[in-house]
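Please review this one:
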Amino acid sequence: MKARVKWVEERTFLGESGSGHTVVMDGAPDAGGRDLGVRPMEMLLLGLGGCTAYDVVDILQKSREPVDDVVIEIDAERSDDIPKVFTRIAVKYIVTGRGLNPKKVERAVHLSADKYCSASVMLGATAEMTHDFEIVETGQ
């Protein structure tokens, strides 16, 4: 896996994935940025969310659960001291479907968090992580 990041100007950078997709990253105005893109540390949380959402959807579909939607909400805190690593990360899974089995949803969340999601395992090595889920029943 490869990635490339190129400085554009001021505190704006263009990230390109090995698969050829690009994303703009920028700093906050108080740090010299112009607020043109996602902050680099926000990218880490987005990567975590994408990684674990991918796993949960895959596991539930393979379990033949009628999943219609998965939303991951992440709330994180960082150290005040440099390096400002994440010290606490709370991940909430909102899983929508009709007649979802709560045990299978819980299993999917735990498998992703503890085994399959590399981002979760890596970030969990330095931050206190919690994983919670909510099931939303779709209408008749």
Summary: The first strand starts at residue 3 and ends at 9.
